[in-house]
């Protein structure tokens, strides 16, 4: 009414009320009446903003990549920003110009400038894996940028969400990576098979070593048995030799005993013969008939035998002699 209006802002908006070109009010979350014909109101948002970005760069090996991410910032000095960009609002609180887009674009330009030198010196494969380094370059470039400091803003952080090559190069890299992965898989299979073969060789070698050790032990056992058998045979030989020597000694002793007995028997026989000879020597020259008579044997048979001997000795003188069987039978029975 009559050009007097009321306007209200929230606590996250810093307000500058210019009246006739001079600041009449300023602060956050203001609500006031103003006279529209001589008033100009600047409203600057104080909250943090997330600015998405995407830009293309060329790597050291002349390959295009797209860098996608976001930058977080907030306005730390609204009066400085108000001197650079136009954040004037109308009676309804709407911005007359869209200078917030200018602010965002300046930030993106500074971020791209900060990363371009790094990307231009980096090859494609390294650039794709350099998200952290790019974030650091963006953050350092924005923090140290004079143009950013003149805008009165504070950079909170920078995040790189994706680094992608061109579709053709992406397919080529996928193919190359796939081939490498396949080669690695083949290499892994080869190494696994080689490991299995090596393990089998070690097992076989261990088995052969075990068999060799067993054979060696068996050989030692056989040699020990042979040594024991040789020792037993030697002991048996010694025992047999001792027995033979003992038998020989016994036989020698028996021989000596027999010889001694023979000598003794001979001596005894000679002694007996000498005794008999000495005893019979007186009877040597005596007639046997006399000896028979001296014997004084009264046995009729003996006497008959002597008679028959006498007859036999004088058979040439006997002309005829008859001896009846009855006589012989009678003599024999008696």
TrEMBL record:
InterPro entries: Band_7, Band_7/SPFH_dom_sf
Signal peptide per UniProt: none
A Pfam family recorded for this sequence: Band_7
Residues annotated as domain Band: 16-193
Coiled coil: 214-270
UniProt keyword list: Coiled coil
Compartments it resides in: Membrane
Membrane-topology annotation of the record: Single-pass membrane protein
Principal location: membrane
Name listed for the protein in its UniProt record: SPFH domain-containing protein
Organism in which the protein naturally occurs: Flavobacterium rhizosphaerae
């Amino acid at each position: 009414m009559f050009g007097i209006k009321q306007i209200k802002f929230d606590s996250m908006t810093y307000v500058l009320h210019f009246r006739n070109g001079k600041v009449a009010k300023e602060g956050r979350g203001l609500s006031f009446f103003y006279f529209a014909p001589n008033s100009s109101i600047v409203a600057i948002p104080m909250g943090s903003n997330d600015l998405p970005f995407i830009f293309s760069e060329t790597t050291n090996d002349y390959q295009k990549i797209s860098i996608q991410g976001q930058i977080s910032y907030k306005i730390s000095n609204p009066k400085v920003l108000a001197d650079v960009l136009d954040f004037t609002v109308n009676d309804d609180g709407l911005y007359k110009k869209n200078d917030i887009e200018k602010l965002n674009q300046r930030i993106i330009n500074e971020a791209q400038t900060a990363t371009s030198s790094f990307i231009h010196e980096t090859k494609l494969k390294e650039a794709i894996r350099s998200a952290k380094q790019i974030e650091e370059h963006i953050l350092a470039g924005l923090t140290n940028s004079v143009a950013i400091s003149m805008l009165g803003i504070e950079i909170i952080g920078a995040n790189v969400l994706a680094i992608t090559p061109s579709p053709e190069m992406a397919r080529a890299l996928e193919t190359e990576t796939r081939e490498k992965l396949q080669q690695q898989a083949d290499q892994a299979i080869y190494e696994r098979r080689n490991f299995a073969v090596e393990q089998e060789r070690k097992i076989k070698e261990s088995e052969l070593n075990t068999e060799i050790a067993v054979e060696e032990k068996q050989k030692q056992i056989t040699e020990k048995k042979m040594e024991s058998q040789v020792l037993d045979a030697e002991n048996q030989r010694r025992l047999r030799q001792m027995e033979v020597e003992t038998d020989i000694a016994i036989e020698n002793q028996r021989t000596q005993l027999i010889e001694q007995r023979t000598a003794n028997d001979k001596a005894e026989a000679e002694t007996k013969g000498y005794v008999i000879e000495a005893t019979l020597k007186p009877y040597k020259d005596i007639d046997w008939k006399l000896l028979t008579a001296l014997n004084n044997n009264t046995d009729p048979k003996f006497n008959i035998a002597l008679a028959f001997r006498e007859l036999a000795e004088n058979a040439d003188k006997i002309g005829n002699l008859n001896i009846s069987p009855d006589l012989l039978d009678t003599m024999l029975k008696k």
